[in-house]
Amino acid sequence: xxxxxxxxxxxxxxxxxxHAWFGARILQKGIIFTDLAIAQFAALGxxxxxxxxxxxxxxxxxxxFALFSAFLIAYASQRTLKLEAFIGLLYVxxxxxxxxxxxxxxxxxxxxxxxxxxxxxxTPLEDVISSSVIYAVIALVLWKVYxxxxxxxxxxxxxxxxxxxxxxxVALAGVLVVFVLLIAPAMVALSLDYKNKLLSSFIFGWFxxxxxxxxxxxxxxxxxxxxxxxxxxxxxxxxLAKSKKSEK
Length: 248
Description:
Blueprint: H1 2-29, H2 34-53, H3 58-77, H4 83-102, H5 108-116, H6 125-144, H7 151-172, H8 175-192, H9 197-219, H10 223-242
């Protein structure tokens, strides 16, 4: 049993560490659905690969669509418009595009379910290693280059790095898993108001992800959806319990 769970546990440890940082920044910017919109465009790119190219050019198309959405969001963030509403439009654009592309594919709905939340119990170790290398490079750029930028380039660099992260993550875990790992740990860390918010977001993300993997293994449940359900449930309970009554 331990041998089977080691790889997915290693995967969620890496995913939580990478996504919690981005999640905290997304909450600070107040554009919660950014990651969902980018993830949907990444998923649209992979669907185009499946629907029209028999899964050729998979990574190139997935990354290209994700980077295109990142550019649109970065550009929109420099304009006077309702940014959250614009990002919502991008989300539904990507989601509807996926359904249109896959509507004539025999395995379209299976692919769509996999895009939402993958069964990460059977993720190959080489995929975890290759994605970890990509995340390490992204972390290095965030540490060394990102703080020295400003204006539109800083916004575009942030959303581009998020797009590259999401591209790898969607392929490994799915759109909904990416969303819950980005938002839930950061949101709970802010609600609990611990001194080291990043570390507390790591701990919470690891806790519900690893717990969900074990539950899904023992009860034969879909792992990705179990992670999403448990993460969303615990986050909702904690945030409501720690919230104060509105002054309205």
